[in-house]
Amino acid sequence: MLLFTSVLSVLAACDSHVPMKRATCEHREGRITKALEVIDDFLLKRPREQKALRLREKWAQEVVLVQWFSEPEGALVALDGEELGPTPITVTVDPGRHTFRFTHDGFAPLVREENAVSNTRPKLTAVLDRLPGAPPVEQTQAPAEVAPAPVTSAQPDEGGPVTAAPAAAMAVETETPRRSAAPLILGTAGLFAAIGGGVLVLTSLLALDGHTGDANAVTRQYIGFALAGAGVAAGIAAIVWLLIDRRPGASSTAGNDNP
């Protein structure tokens, strides 16, 4: 009799080194979740094994997914003596009766036996009784957002901390300054004046050389020289103006006068 019992225990152990045989043995003994674990390990090495894929799809429909909630939330769940984790939790079990134990600080332990029916997805809630004199359960709250403190800097002259201005207020506008059109106008006028003066000087010189008797030739010559000189002076002034206007910091001179 003892020998017969030993043989049965060896057969029930499913110690075959062939994964598919071991998985089939586990399934035959009613340990479907264990059989699925063996097949999953086998598929990691041979993911295209059609027989293993078909068995896994078939056996996955036989297990039971139990989703547990509790009052209060966060109770520790143990399945048939094995701790799993806090609620809410989803547990995969074999069909049949199972014992669930729930524990929580300040509450009496709760033991429930449930009959798991194949291919079902029950949602269950375990309500624990508070122990006499136990403090209330603190609800977990998200930490409040704390605004960053203003940056302070010490000024040696006054000796006290001064709150720094916001970054937006400290930003300096860097718009491109508008260039004045006056130098261009002055330079253009000087160019035309120089050309006109040159024309007057040239025509007066031609008249004097030709002895045409033009009495106004000398006058036109003086006017031409004066006009050309004024044009050259205006061109030089325009160039100097442009150079000064393009110098770094020249456009912000007016802004620097303000306190």
Structural description of this entry:
The structure is a single chain. The chain is of the alpha+beta class and 259 residues long. It is 44% helix and 19% strand. A hairpin with a 6-residue loop joins β5 (96-103) and β6 (110-116). α2 runs antiparallel to α3, α3 packs antiparallel against α4 (50-60) and α6 packs antiparallel against α7.
Descriptive key words:
259 residues; alpha+beta; Immunoglobulin-like; three-stranded mixed beta sheet; 9 strands
Structural class from helices and strands?
Answer: alpha+beta
Considering DSSP H and I runs of 4 or more, what fraction of the residues is helical? 40-55%
Could you state the order of secondary-structure elements as H and E?
Answer: HHHHEEEEEEEEEHHHH
Spatial shape: rod-shaped
Output mean pLDDT.
75
Summarize this entry quickly:
The chain has 259 residues and is of the alpha+beta class.
SSE layout:
Blueprint: H1 2-13, H2 19-28, H3 32-45, H4 50-60, E1 64-71, E2 76-79, E3 82-86, E4 89-93, E5 96-103, E6 110-116, E7 123-127, E8 152-154, E9 161-163, H5 167-170, H6 182-210, H7 217-245, H8 253-256
Parallel strand pairs: 1-7
Antiparallel strand pairs: 1-4, 2-3, 2-5, 5-6, 8-9
Helix pairs in contact: 2-3, 3-4, 6-7
